[in-house]
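=== RUN LOG ===
request id: a7f3
mode: sequence -> structure
chains: 1
length: 228
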Amino acid sequence: MSTISMRGTTLGAVALAVAGTLALTGCKNGNEEVAPAPTGSASGGASTAPSEAPASPSAGGSGYSSEAPSGAAGTAKSGQAFKLGETATVPFDYGSNKGGTIALTVTTVEQGNPADLDSLNLGDKVKGMIPYYVRYTVKNVGTTDLSYSSVGHIKGLLPDGSEAQGVSVIGKFEKCKDDSLPKGFTNGQTQAGCAIALAPSAQTKVVGAQYWGNPYNNLSNGKPLTWK
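=== RESULT ===
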């Protein structure tokens, strides 16, 4: 898995994370620095995790558990497949002291235009790639207040079942907004989100999405949920 991370036009910095190699960080003035990137993997064994990404503790790692374990009555089973528009009820944790239960629905996978990425100043790093926007909704169906949490862990899927390269934006990207959950995100509250996925070429489409938050990852001996 690899993830490209950058700041939007109002924040300036751009970062590229390449699985198992280096993280390249550059500013808009063209200067670049190279620094070692940590590696780890949610679904396959090795990937980089941007420093701004939300923490998602592995099972037992923080001593905190969500309201319902994977496979509990009413919750999605590890590796379960859904159609676009269907809802998965999943245990959710964020950081070391906040968790609950959410209803997660991947609603659409929308093809974008390569020019959409121009404002992110990624240049040749995304040459020939086509952006897709994985749109989803999150509803709090648990008993805890999830204010200011970030869901994340949503990636695009290519036709062969492999994971599309992802882009994480810090700041505002109007084509695909991915804000943290607002204050007062209690039971019954709903918010829309969006994840950017990159198809490697115009001949290959992003056809679905996956969610690999805890416990649906290999850290918890789980498998991602999928939507197609």
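=== NOTES ===
The chain has one domain: 64-227.
The chain has no helices and 13 strands.
=== END ===
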